[in-house]
Amino acid sequence: MSVVSASPFLSQDLESPARQRRHTLPASEFRPLNPQDAISVFEIEKEAFISVSGECPLHLDEVRHFLTLCPELSLGWFELGRLVAFIIGSLWDEDRLTTDALTLHKPHGHTVHIHVLAVHRTFRQQGKGSILIWRYLQYLRCLPYVRRAVLMCEDILVPFYKKSGFKVVGPCAITVAHLTFTEMQFAIRGHAYMRRNSQF
Ligand SMILES: CC(C)(COP(=O)(O)OP(=O)(O)OC[C@H]1O[C@@H](n2cnc3c(N)ncnc32)[C@H](O)[C@@H]1OP(=O)(O)O)[C@@H](O)C(=O)NCCC(=O)NCCS
Hints:
Layout: H1 3-6, H2 12-15, H3 17-21, E1 28-31, H4 38-53, H5 60-69, E2 74-79, E3 82-92, E4 111-119, H6 128-140, E5 148-153, H7 158-163, E6 167-171, E7 182-187, H8 191-197
The structure holds coenzyme A.
Coenzyme A binds next to β4 and α6.
């Protein structure tokens, strides 16, 4: 089964014959990303991160890398065919994030590492980031091998992720240039496992 046909992101309307006959772009569409989306992803990243701090979570080749290896762990929000927000994840197989997690996809891991969530500048503060992460977490519940989602973020964004149900794990071991991060996690399943490994 292809990634797209297995995806719960496509509404029935998009798959109906009536929809297939129509040639206009859908007003709003959620779907996994593919390597052809990498440039649109990177355009948003450049504005969101590089223009602010000179760094970004994933460079263009890394975006292509993850969208080739594990497109099913990404999610894009398109409006009239234009990418307005996205998430890129990969699998990780250790309790805590280390620098290897920034570049590796561990196919046998049970943890989804969310590398980046970003909303196009003109669409921020409209609830899109919260909606996208909610849909993504709902989707992860459909993947039997996923136990939890983890991410690292700057302290200022901890309240944003807490509102989406993430809990603080502790200071992240990874630093990028002068930036430090907090590691956060969201339990997908296996609550006993989560309790054993959570310090907070
Ligand atoms: C962070 C981001 C994804 C949030 O998406 P969004 O669609 O603007 O967020 P929502 O409209 O769903 O939620 C807005 C809430 O997030 C908080 N928030 C958003 N960006 C924030 C920021 N840079 N600093 C602090 N809080 C922020 C707001 O305070 C707001 O909270 P409120 O509802 O209590 O006012 C978006 O601002 C973005 O893409 N930023 C640049 C990239 C980035 O920093 N990504 C996160 C990497 S870990």
